[in-house]
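Run: sequence + magnesium ion -> complex structure.
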Amino acid sequence: MTFLNASPPAETDIRRRSILSGIAVSSGVAVGRSLFINRRLGFASTPVKISAKKIPLEEERLEEATLALVMEFEEAKRQLSSQSLGPAAREQADLLDAYILICRDPKMLALALDMIRRGRVSAEWAWERAVQSVVGAFEKMDSPYLRERAEDVRAVGSRILARLRGESHLLPAGLEKCIIFAHDLTPADTLALTPESVIGLATEMGGHTSHTGILARSLRLPCVVGVTGLEEAALDGAQVIVDGIQGLIIVNPGEPELLEYAELQKEFSRYEDRIRQEASLPAETVDGIRAAVYGNIEVMDEAAQIRLLGGEGIGLYRTEYSYMARSGLPSEDELYAEYARVVEIMSPAPVVLRTLDVGADKSLGGGRLEEENPALGLRAIRYSLRHQDIFRRQLRAILRAGSNGRAAIMFPLISGLLELRQAKSVLGEVRQELDNQGIAYDKDMAVGTMIELPSAVFQARALAAETDFFSIGTNDLIQYTLGIDRGNKYVSYLYQPLHPAVLQAIRLVVDAAHAAGITVCVCGEMASDPYCLPILLAMGVDEFSVNPQAIPIIKYMIRNFDTAELGELLRQVYNSSSVRTITRLVKHHIHDRFRTELHFINLLNDTDL
Ligand code: PEP
Ligand code: MG
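>> structure
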């Protein structure tokens, strides 16, 4: 392993061993030399007084540093648009836009310039005070959304500060196989990460769903986030271990630890190879029950990887993402080109296109509606039925794209029979219109209903009689069944997929679908949770649509289940009234069979029993 850029630390520091813990967000082990980038704001800074004649110089330095960062972010955005990183790229582009706005904010800059003039302090010191006062104001806000913006201001602030200090805050060129430590990583930083330059990551900030984790998983880099004390403990050039399985960082490990981790690394690659090698085999249980495993995608570019990972189709295409990425609305031909491409890439495998699901946490270019309760407001199918011009345009594009392979259409957040009939009636009119115009389209395209609301669960029998398939959106079904906001950290402890009420709801839906002779898919996150999978399989769920990276492990697990044994587990689950008991039953059932797999998977919510 070569390490080009960091200068070696003092001899005494090399020997100081420490272990830090955080949240494992991307599995695997990396052993190498560390490089620290993006130190936090205020790290070891001191006030410096300046003479009056130096004031213009300090003002200029600050303005230049700000401008240079804007240019750097703009360049990162340009690079992004020439790459195809899927949803991670989209998230990065949005963040870059937010960062550019912060850099350009005239008030923060004016505050710092004023301090330089009046207080006769260095640009570094003035800038830091200005950023901290803005951060402080954001942190006091009532709205959680605005409180989170404090992190963005801090991230931008520390990068400008690094520029003023002449420190590196980007990955140096020519880097080879090192472990990046950072206070936090911006999208601009993560763009430069490749498996050639970096072998592991750790940050002080971040949680389970931070963008660093998403990117690390797609690059298959071991990663631990939320590591308190990383900045103090880690020196550039120190030997470190990133344990992305248990969420540990070991600085200056001893010889026995290095041997132990070398062994674990080998075990992990054997595990990964085994799972991936089998990914192309059918998802058939030991006793011959066949399920289908599909991938969920947000943007067109993700389609190609579904096949490579063993996916048998796309079970959920969240079409709203390409609307959200634009400032105006896409034309029918633009939509057609995008959908036709995905359908062609996947053909003859199926692609299920969900119609627009905007509202709640996702808004179109024109901004959010003023709604007291957006999650209970004009979202998903309700939005489409209200804005029929947008809806019809999308339906035409989907129907036309169907001629290029095998596509199906699916309506989100259907609350009951009336709404399904309304949506189908618009679809019927659009079909008629295409017929009248002599435009080719798929005349037999299947029409599915997403089950995401308790009202749809209770009307499942009636809905099943008028639809070609069901797809259970468990992310929303859990939210609306248990009455908790799926994105609210204060009630996240109540987000329980194994809650008996959730399981009973799914049971009703599966039974209603099968009684009517239609298939049922689960396309929410529950489908890729190793604890939920055996229950869903035992209930008779026919199809699982999961995030692409989870396809190999889900297929592997299905291939190792015996539904006769799962039937007994299900009987016990139905007789249990607490999440705790149900979790214990499932854990007990799968623990021995999947000991290695459970060890290596980063579980989102591993209830401690
Ligand atoms: C769901 O709700 O489970 C689902 C798949 O839809 P989304 O996550 O896009 O709301
Ligand atoms: Mg949903």
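>> summary
The domain at 21-36+172-273 is CATH 3.50.30.10 (Glucose Oxidase; domain 1). The mean pLDDT is 86.
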